[in-house]
Write a structure and sequence with these properties.
This is Putative MFS family arabinose efflux permease. It is found in: Cell membrane. Pfam families: MFS_1. By secondary structure, this protein is mostly helical. Helices cover about 70% and strands about 0% of the residues. The protein is globular. The protein starts with about 35 loop residues before the first helix and ends in a 22-residue tail after the last helix.
Length: about 425
């Protein structure tokens, strides 16, 4: 089956009655006219899919008290949500590639909203975790579709600008949702869960905004066709490594930086929160400048430089002796993280052509989810033999080595030239 990109001719050049290709794959639909509405939908989805982590976090202590959960078992609250993304993103992406786009998005968001709201009715911790697993599965289905929607709606560097806008919205949500969660928990621990019923409005918007286009039908109904689609493209595995690395280093920082700063005397618990907030803010600002930077810098050079900045920040955090120094390092880490946040999606849409992005997008999301799960496990393994300071230095070394390894992404630099996605290599 040919993996060539769809014709770059304007939509009017394609007759509306074009017959499907001989392999049964539906012809690629022209880019939608309402690109702004598509971006608004993607931003709304991004905020909605962040609610069950950031808005719910303030309720965790009350959940522990209500259900008698100790600190060790409390970790399952987040892990139950993350694990489905590691194992189900690719199978669900393969399945939903065959469904009309608006039904796939609306269906996954509706399930996400229902599972979230139902957690307010959980009578025991086991039921709560089961609903978290179900919601995590819905997340695994929905999040890769945000990449596909942007890829369908935008072309050239406009795709990168759209991803940058989404990252800015994501950063704003990371600031606002915990505050909203605190206000809701003040009313009841059920508040952040009940509020997730509003996500059904985003599902309804998807039904109106999107059309019935489908992605190219995979040759097989399992994950093997997804990995073949990844390996068939130049640097396909390297593209997935960008998202994996970003989540590995980010979640290691979120999980262990407060302890590092407090034990080292650089900050107290509140100060550590300020440091993390500065890193998130810097990431949002850096993301906004990525499209402009791509006009002057090759994509691979910028990606590898971002990884080196992250490496330097991870190595510098143990050396920060006070709060101002830690804040300065956090800004540097945020700049690198913000660039990677945009590039991890931009590489997917610029490497695979329209109609063939659903499976690679699912594989990319699966790689990121694996990075989220691997971060605490990797640091915990290091802590069995060494200190937290040394563990951060090991992570810094890993980031630097990965930056050198990903120089192979230079082969994709031409795909970031203005214009439509260049033809992909035949699979």
């Amino acid at each position: 089956m040919s993996g060539a990109a769809p014709s770059a001719a304007p939509p009017s050049a394609a007759p509306p009655s074009a017959a499907p290709p001989p392999d049964g794959t539906p012809p690629a639909a022209p880019p939608p006219d309402g690109t702004r509405s598509a971006l608004l939908l993607v931003c709304a989805m991004t905020v909605a899919l962040a609610m069950t982590i950031h808005a719910v976090a303030p309720a965790v202590p009350e959940i522990q008290r209500r259900f008698g959960v100790d600190d060790g078992d409390a970790g399952w609250f987040t892990l139950a949500y993350v694990l489905p993304g590691v194992f189900l993103t690719i199978p669900l992406g393969t399945l939903l590639a065959r469904a009309p786009r608006r039904l796939a998005v609306a269906g996954s968001l509706t399930l996400y909203a229902a599972a979230g709201a139902a957690q307010a009715l959980a009578g025991d911790y086991g039921t709560l975790l089961a609903l978290r697993l179900l919601q995590g599965a819905a997340f695994a289905a929905a999040m890769p579709l945000t990449v596909v929607i942007v890829g369908d709606a935008y072309r050239g560097l406009a795709q990168v600008r759209a991803f940058a806008a989404r990252q800015v919205v994501s950063t704003a949500a990371e600031f606002a949702l915990p505050l909203i969660g605190i206000a809701l928990v003040a009313l009841s621990w059920r508040g952040p869960f009940v509020a997730q019923a509003a996500i059904a409005l985003v599902a309804a918007a998807a039904l109106v905004t999107l059309d019935d286009r489908r992605s190219a039908r995979p040759a097989r109904g399992d994950g093997r066709s997804t990995w073949r689609a990844v390996r068939a493209q130049p640097c396909g595995t390297a593209v997935l490594a960008v998202g994996f690395a970003r989540m590995l280093f980010k979640f290691a920082l979120l999980a262990y930086l407060p302890a590092l700063l407090v034990r080292g005397g650089a900050a107290d618990a509140a100060g550590a929160g300020v440091v993390l907030a500065l890193a998130a803010g810097a990431a949002g600002v850096a993301a906004a400048f990525v499209p402009r930077a791509l006009r002057r810098l090759p994509a691979a050079r910028m990606t590898c430089a971002a990884l080196l900045v992250v490496a330097g920040a991870l190595a510098a955090f143990p050396l920060a002796g006070d709060l101002p120094a830690a804040c300065a390092v956090a800004v540097a880490f945020g700049v690198g993280d913000g660039v990677l946040a945009v590039m991890q999606d931009a590489y997917v849409t610029r490497t695979w052509p329209e109609g063939a992005r659903a499976q690679p997008a699912a594989a990319s999301q699966s790689a990121r989810n694996l990075g989220k799960a691997a971060a605490p496990l990797a640091v915990a393994a290091l802590l069995t033999t060494t200190s937290l300071t040394v563990a951060f230095c090991v992570l810094a070394g890993a980031a630097a080595l990965l930056a050198c390894a990903l120089r192979s992404l230079r082969a994709l630099d031409r795909r970031f030239a203005p214009g439509p996605t260049p033809p992909a290599r035949a699979a």
